[in-house]
Design brief:
Layout lengths: L2 H12 L6 H22 L8 H4 L1 H12 L1 H9 L11 H16 L4 H7 L1 H29 L4 H25 L15 H17 L7 H22 L6 H11 L2 H21 L1 H14 L1
Helix pairs in contact: 1-11, 2-4, 2-6, 2-8, 4-6, 4-9, 5-9, 8-9, 8-10, 8-11, 9-10, 10-11
Length: 291
Amino acid sequence: MDPQTYMDIATVVTKLKMYPYFDIAHYILMCIAVRDDVVPQQGQGSPSQPFSRKHPLSSWLSSMLICFAGSIIANFLLGEPVITPFKDHLSILTATAVWYLVNYSPFDLIYKLSKFLPIKLIICILKETQRAHKVYHGVLVAAKLYPSSYLIVVIVGTVKGAGSGVMKNFDRLVRGIWVPGNNEILQPSFATKASLVASIIFLCERLNLIAVPHPLIYFGVVLFFVYFKISSVVLGIHDPFVPLENLFCAIFMGGMWDALRRAAIKEPAKEDENKDPRNDVIKSKEEKKKD
């Protein structure tokens, strides 16, 4: 591709408006995530009577919390009112309409169409583009409020991009489920890790550590999110960071030394076993039996 053409495309992607199409894709995936999370965890009802039919208020509130999780948590961390994301009536009405269609459309049509692979890929591409937008603006806002606090900037950018995972425990609590052992701190998802990497990249750009035009950096982050999301949906590669994490832990987190220690403990044990006098008795008994 011609560099100028690539630059033009990157500039267009940078200036994309998220409402309504990208936001709707985000709302669809979040409402589906809440719906799919209910039945196996709740253990109640059946496909003919899902959780949303029995507890519509809880289902709606849970979906709204997940849809606006990034903004809610970021506002909490920055000392702003956590209810601020709900002041945008248009976004709330749009998210509510999506929630209603996902859970109550005739013949479950919207839910089934959203699960259809070609349509799901389109929705995921729109969603990942919006994720890059959220991460960038989270870094931008945090950098203006705390220009010298790089950790805060990275945390806010990460939370803006992957707030639904952080909110999951509280979201489940609204639906009467409490699973404290399953959270983003203990088991971070790929979305959280990728948002962390993107936040660091955008921070390095602000610090002029990356000498590349902003549209190219932004478009590169979008491609990064989209590529690995498509790999997850089509190929089942859910976390490409795992091999790097295993290597890092083996070198810097004591994994290599633990392996050497286990090997050193096993070798003397084998030598002691060979020197055990009981082995000589057993061998002599076996020789007598042969005779």
